[in-house]
Amino acid sequence: AEERGLSVLNYNDITVDVEIRGMNYEIGNYSANDLIATVNLDQVTREGTYHLDIDVSSTHSSDQVTIVSVYPETVEVTFDRISTSMFTMGVEAPLITADEGLTLRDINVTPSEVEIEGAENELEKIERVVASVPESMTLSEDTTISSDDVIFYDEDDNVLDSSRYTINDVSTFEVNFVVYKKKTANL
How far apart are the first and last CA of the chain? Predict the structure, then answer.
């Protein structure tokens, strides 16, 4: 699969139950360490979800072991091409307000752009990426708040599963809130 530029997306270690048959002197003391389960990737030629056969064999090449049954017989695995894309960061801070007589003028986030890695078809779903500040605060001066909460949205403003994406080289965002004061003066 890697030779074709594909990566596994939903890989989990699994345990299989195996029934074997053979001569007692060869398999009588067998344990799980004497068997190996592998997945045959020959049918993986392009992106998609596959139900792959689980093949079990003895780790001892000289033993005459017959595999009677394997459960489960297959495992579901999804393959896709992994890619990266650059996105401009936005900010979502619905509970941040300015003190009375002040105006929350500008909100900036650093870094302002991020490189996100994920499956090509998943990256295509991202419309916007925001650093979220869920705290409730009333600000009386310029304030910077750190956030590690990132939300991915599609074009219909639906929240996407963040576990499908990796943000490269950034773990925390600095969100800067600029507060202005309005004053009326006589000329």
Answer: 75
